[in-house]
Write a structure and sequence with these properties.
Blueprint lengths: L3 E6 L1 H4 L9 H15 L4 E6 L7 H6 L4 H25 L4 E5 L8 E2 L2 H9 L3 E5 L9 H11 L4 E6 L4 E2 L11 E2 L1 E3 H7 L6 H9 L4 E5 L5 H6 L6 E4 L1
Length: about 230
């Protein structure tokens, strides 16, 4: 059992079957899974993407200034964070939203010591706004926050059940890894996370576990050590 984890959630997955925005059914399913492991005593930091609302890079490709586009993406992650915090509170869970840029009273301004203090008091801490800087993804923000809050591991919840030799949604011959090294991910060019995030985790020896978060019950399984995804390690 892990004492403290960082859970990275996909904004796109939060859209559910709608394909955009926030699907209440998917949101509540996520909240129930997260509450379930919080009840076991696991300290949980969460980073959520914003791709269901706005993605800075795709905005830049459509003519938005890249910095402003990334700032819009950061705000999208705050919207998702507030939605998840509301769903968790409805289940009776203590939760706090910390933002990487000042926007009280929406959330408190993030710092490491505050985050760790809240975690130790039983709060789920949702870390919104990415890194607060343009040109960095929420994958990189997840790696950074996992290291800062001294998490035991970073869990990356996706819509696939691990890392494959190729995209399993496009290539039926793709085979799944149970474990893989950071170096092999980089050498093979596997799109697990962006290069900055993988390099950051490798340099700080932060293990990453990739699994399918969209299947209910999977989060508690990975917390309890079931091998249902892929572990990235040194």
């Amino acid at each position: 059992m892990y004492k403290r984890i960082l859970l990275k959630l996909s904004g796109e997955s939060l859209a559910g079957q709608q394909g955009h925005g926030i699907d209440p059914q998917r949101l509540n399913a996520y909240a129930k899974q997260i509450k379930e492991i919080a009840d076991l005593g696991v300290e949980i930091g969460i980073v959520i993407g914003g791709g269901n609302i706005f993605r800075g890079l795709s905005g830049a490709q459509k003519g938005f200034d890249r910095v402003k586009g990334d700032q819009m993406g950061m705000l999208a992650t705050v919207i998702n964070s507030l939605a998840l915090s509301s769903a968790l509170e409805a289940l009776g869970q203590k939760v706090r939203v910390l933002t990487s840029v000042r926007m009280e009273p929406v959330g408190d301004f993030y710092n490491k010591n505050k985050a760790i203090r809240l975690l130790s008091k039983g709060n789920i801490v949702i870390l919104a706004g990415g890194t607060g800087l343009p040109f960095f993804t929420t994958d990189t923000a997840s790696g950074l926050r996992a290291i800062e809050i001294e998490a035991d591991i970073m869990f990356k919840g996706t819509r696939v059940d691990g890392i494959y030799t190729a995209d399993p949604e496009k290539d039926p011959t793709a085979t799944k890894f149970d474990t893989i090294t950071y170096d092999e991910v980089l050498e093979r060019g596997l799109k697990v996370m962006d290069l900055t995030a993988i390099t950051l985790c490798r340099e700080n020896k932060m293990p990453i576990y990739v699994f399918n978060m969209d299947k209910e019950g999977n989060l508690i399984k990975v917390i309890q050590g079931e091998q249902i995804g892929t572990l990235v390690k040194p």
